[in-house]
UniProtKB/TrEMBL annotation:
Pfam families: PGA_cap
Enzyme Commission code(s) on record: 3.1.-.-
SUPFAM superfamilies the record matches: Metallo-dependent phosphatases
Descriptive protein name: CapA family protein
PROSITE patterns: PROKAR_LIPOPROTEIN (PS51257)
Signal peptide: 1-23
Entry's Gene Ontology molecular function annotations: hydrolase activity
Length: 382
C-alpha cells in the first residue's frame, strides 16, 4: 500500500469485504431511488476521475472473477451507492480495450472490456473517452472500447468509430433536462490520428469546443458538460493552460447564457482544485479513481496518484424557458484507491467505520478548496 500501513489496509479490506461479496452476486444494477432534486424538476450529476487499469488492476479483476474472466464490480462497490443514486453519473475511461486475453497495462494500455460492465453495474450513465491513451491501439482500440461501452449501455463522448459518430452530440436525457457531454484531450502521446480518420479523437481546441457547445445548445441541450483531459501530471495546482482555458471557455456566451455549464478535468493523476470561474464550476482535476501503484516523474511511489474526488452538482431548472439551469448545490467527496485491497474507498464512509484515513481525507480537502471554492458554496459531501 502506498504510504499507508498494513493495518489500515486490512481494516479497509474488512470493511469492504461484505459489500464486495454482495456486489459480485449482482449482475444488473438495481433501480435508482428518486432523488429530491428530481422531484423538484432538477437533477443531480456525479462525476469521477480517471479509470486507469494497470496490470495489477487487471490481475485483481481476474482474482475477483474467480479466475474466469474479469470482474470490476467489486473494486467499485464502495462508491456504488453514491454513483447509482445520482440522476446522471459520468466517468472518465482513460484507456482503450483489448480482446481475447490480450490485455496490457502501462505504457500502452489495453484493458479488458469487462471494465464497461463494471462501470454500468456501478451506475455510470456515460464516460468521457478522449485521453492521451486513446490511440494506444489505434483505431481498432477505439472501436473495441466504444463497442463494449455500447453493449453495457454506457454512453460515451470524445472518440469515434465513424465521421458521423464524431459529428453527433452525446445527449443524455435527465428528467426534464437534456444534458450534452463533450470530451477532449490535450494529446495522444505522440500517436498520430489514424489515416483518413482525423475525427477519431477530439483534441483540445478552444474555438472548436465553444463551437461544439453552441451546436449542442442549438440542438436542444439544456446543460452542456465539457470533459477535458489536460494539465501537468503530478502537479496539485492547475497550470497556466488550465487556468487560461477555463477562463476563456466559461466566458463564452450566447446572448445572456453561458455556452458551457460545467467543466470536468482529468489527467494530472492527483486531485486538483475546484473553482467557480465566471459563474461556472470547474474541476481542474479529479485524480485517478482506479489505478495501480503510482510512481511520479522522479520514479518514487506517490500516494497522491491513488487519491481522487467525486464531484456532485445539483442543477435546478430555470425560472423562464431558455435561461440557464443553475447549480444550487456543489459538493465533493474524497476517495482513494486502496491498492492492497483492490478497492475504491469513499473516505468519509471509511472514517465513520473507524479506518485511519483522516490525514488522506484532509489533504484532498485542502487541495480541492485551495482556490477559494468554499466561499462560493462548495462543501464536502458524504
Amino acid at each position: 500500500m502506498i504510504a499507508r500501513s498494513r493495518q489500515v489496509a486490512l481494516a479497509l479490506t474488512a470493511l469492504l469485504a461484505a459489500g464486495a461479496a454482495c456486489q459480485a452476486e449482482r449482475h444488473e444494477p438495481p433501480g435508482r431511488p428518486a432523488p429530491s432534486a428530481t422531484a423538484a424538476g432538477g437533477f443531480t450529476l456525479v462525476a469521477t476521475g480517471d479509470v486507469l487499469p494497470h496490470s495489477s488492476i487487471i490481475d485483481r479483476a481476474r482474482f475477483d472473477a474467480g479466475g474466469r474472466g474479469y470482474d470490476f464490480r467489486p473494486m467499485l462497490s464502495d462508491v456504488k451507492p453514491l454513483v447509482s443514486r445520482a440522476d446522471v453519473a459520468l466517468c472518465h475511461m482513460e484507456t482503450v480495450y483489448g480482446a481475447d486475453g490480450d490485455y496490457t497495462g502501462y505504457p500502452a494500455f489495453k484493458s479488458p472490456p469487462e471494465v464497461a460492465t463494471g462501470l454500468a453495474a456501478t451506475g455510470y450513465d456515460g464516460c468521457s473517452t478522449a485521453s492521451n491513451h486513446s490511440l494506444d491501439d489505434g483505431a481498432a482500440g477505439i472501436a473495441r472500447t466504444l463497442d463494449a461501452l455500447d453493449r453495457a449501455g454506457v454512453r460515451h463522448a470524445g472518440t469515434a468509430r465513424t465521421e458521423a459518430e464524431a459529428r453527433a452530440v452525446t445527449v443524455l436525457p435527465v428528467g426534464a433536462a437534456r444534458l450534452a457531454h463533450l470530451s477532449y484531450t490535450y494529446d495522444t502521446n505522440g500517436y498520430p490520428l489514424p489515416p483518413g480518420q482525423p475525427w477519431a479523437v477530439n483534441l483540445i481546441d478552444e474555438a472548436r469546443i465553444v463551437a461544439d457547445a453552441r451546436a449542442a445548445r442549438r440542438a436542444g441541450a439544456d446543460v452542456v458538460v465539457v470533459s477535458l483531459h489536460w494539465g501537468t501530471e503530478w502537479q496539485d495546482e492547475p497550470d497556466r493552460q488550465q487556468l487560461d482555458l477555463a477562463r476563456s471557455l466559461t466566458a463564452a456566451r450566447t446572448g445572456d447564457r453561458p455556452d458551457i455549464d460545467l467543466i470536468l478535468g482529468t489527467h494530472a493523476h492527483v486531485p486538483q482544485a475546484y473553482q467557480k470561474v465566471n459563474g461556472t464550476w470547474v474541476i481542474y482535476g479529479m485524480g485517478d479513481q482506479v489505478a495501480g501503484e503510482m510512481f511520479n516523474h522522479g520514479g518514487s511511489p506517490d500516494p497522491r496518484g491513488n487519491q481522487s474526488t467525486i464531484g456532485r452538482f445539483t442543477f435546478a431548472p430555470p425560472e423562464r424557458k431558455g435561461a440557464r439551469w443553475k447549480v444550487t448545490k456543489a459538493e465533493f467527496v474524497p476517495q482513494l484507491f486502496d491498492v492492497d485491497a483492490g478497492r475504491v474507498v469513499n473516505l468519509n464512509q471509511a472514517l465513520k467505520e473507524g479506518a485511519d484515513v483522516a490525514g488522506v481525507r484532509d489533504r484532498i480537502r485542502d487541495v480541492v478548496l485551495s482556490r477559494g471554492a468554499a466561499k462560493d458554496g462548495l462543501v464536502m459531501g458524504e
